[in-house]
Specification:
The protein is of the alpha/beta class. The chain has a domain of about 290 residues: Alpha-Beta Barrel (TIM Barrel), CATH 3.20.20.80. It is about 40% helix and about 20% strand. It is built from 13 helices and 13 strands. The strands form 3 sheets. Strands 1-2-3-4-5-8-10-11 form an 8-stranded parallel β-barrel, surrounded by 6 helices. A two-stranded antiparallel sheet has the order 6-7. α11 crosses α12. The radius of gyration is 20 Å and the shape is globular. The two termini are about 35 Å apart. Bound molecules: beta-D-glucopyranose. The site of beta-D-glucopyranose has 10 residues, from loops.
Length: about 425
């Protein structure tokens, strides 16, 4: 069986210029864990109404001139109940893929972007070993029905899920337990490995990756040994440990002032490309009153400013994380990079500066194959609601009207100019 069905796919690899989105952030879902998690969604459950306006939104991709589009499938729409598949939802996502293929836009499908069906979270959350089998059943359904996809992302940012869901409790399932966090990451990575095999046996040409959130990390006070130590530990855990685990088959997790945890996992070499999601730099300060002694700050030390989410704009950090990811010796794709701001000029500068850094990475021989701006249109931002304006197109959340920002025009121009990357 070939996941690509009868769709002809060019074998010539081209630089992927794209935009990235996630299903829940555009369309919500009444069956998802997050729908009940964040009260703000009650007054705006369909978010941007993309589930119904998707054809119009896909037209924006044409307008932008991108040749790739990263989007996710909303598992809770496909499997709203444990024993019920909604084939209409699969057809809906198939329609998206078909439209993209007709427009010669490469689809990149994220299978898991933070949300779960409620039944999964209630009965088989990731720290339960049966989670693997349940997740695999969903992926199997997708792989055996969805046609025309070559690029797959098994998980978006497993470490954010871990930090939010299992360490600071800000995301479902809302726990703060290291042992459950360790169990959960083990099950997530075992699932990744099994899906890698499943996708490759369905289609030899499948490109299977994972999207890893990486950040630049620095001590608040360079002279302070504990700030420096925390930054080192954070760098190792947050940025490096996952990359190293794909290299060695051993995941080493070290939290400040705790014993290192080591796990053998069947993931060595099981990744065809590494997706890097890069946004910002964080500064760390030792504070005995904070969890694990870590206080996290965003400060504008580089002079590029802070975003509406308070994050530091730090383009140079992109090179550092990409350089580390290149240790894997497989293609790298910048699967997310973006800024929340209502100031179009700031958005344009952000894109320009990061793409300049990307060019430097390419010139120095790092194998970067694509860049996806986050995001196509304004959407629901986890924990923050509807005010973080990441979109190239502005959304009016009461009328669902979309309007291009000048950053959209700039991004199109940039793509045209750099077609031959
Ligand atoms: C996530 C997106 C999110 C973006 C901005 C990434 O970590 O994958 O879902 O909207 O950051 O916060």
């Amino acid at each position: 069986m070939n996941c690509l069905g009868s769709v002809p796919v060019s074998t010539k690899s081209k630089f992927l210029w794209g935009v990235a989105t996630s299903a829940f952030q555009l369309e919500g879902s009444p069956y998802a864990d997050w729908a009940a998690w964040d009260e703000r969604l009650r007054s705006n459950p369909n978010v941007t109404n993309h589930y119904f306006l998707y054809k119009k939104d896909l037209n924006l991709l044409k307008e932008l001139g991108v040749n790739a589009y990263r989007f996710s499938l909303e598992w809770s729409r496909i499997q709203p109940e444990e024993d019920r598949w909604d084939m209409e939802a699969i057809r809906h996502y198939q329609d998206i893929v078909d439209i993209l293929r007709r427009e010669d836009i490469e689809p990149m499908v994220t299978l898991h972007h933070f949300t779960h069906p409620r039944w999964f979270l209630e009965k088989y959350p990731w720290h339960n070993d049966r989670s693997v089998q349940k997740y695999l059943a969903y992926v199997e359904k997708v792989v055996s029905t969805l046609r025309g996809v070559r690029y797959w992302i098994t998980f978006n940012e497993p470490y954010i899920l871990l930090l939010g869901g299992y360490l600071d409790g800000s995301m479902p399932p809302g726990l703060r337990e290291v042992p459950s966090a360790v169990k959960a990451i083990g099950n997530i990575l075992v699932s990744h490995s099994r899906i890698y095999d499943m996708l490759h046996s369905a289609d030899q040409d499948a490109q299977v990756g994972i999207a890893h959130n990486m950040a630049a990390i620095a001590p608040c006070r360079f002279w302070h040994p504990l700030d420096r130590l925390l930054s080192k530990i954070a760098m190792f855990f947050y940025n490096h440990s996952l990359i190293d685990a794909f290299l060695s088959g051993t995941l080493r997790i070290r939290f400040p002032f705790k014993k290192e945890i080591e796990m053998r996992l069947p993931i060595k070499g099981k990744v065809d490309f590494v997706g890097v999601n890069y946004y910002t730099r964080v500064h760390l300060r030792f504070n005995p009153f904070k969890k694990m002694g870590v206080e996290l700050r965003y400060q504008d030390t580089g002079g590029h400013g802070l975003t509406d989410t308070g994050w530091e704009v730090h383009p140079r950090g992109l090179e550092k994380v990409v350089r580390y990811a290149s240790k894997l010796n497989i293609p790298i794709i910048i699967t997310e990079n973006g800024i929340a701001t209502r100031d179009d000029e700031k958005k344009i500068k952000f894109i320009k500066r990061h793409v300049d850094v990307l060019k430097r990475c390419l010139e120095s021989g790092i194998d970067v194959r694509g860049y996806f701006y986050w995001s196509l249109i304004d959407n629901y931002e986890w924990l923050r609601g509807f005010d973080a304006r990441f979109g190239l197109y502005r959304v009016d959340f009461s009328t669902f009207e979309r309007k291009p920002t000048s950053a959209a025009t700039y991004y199109s121009y940039l793509i045209k100019k750099n077609k031959k990357f």
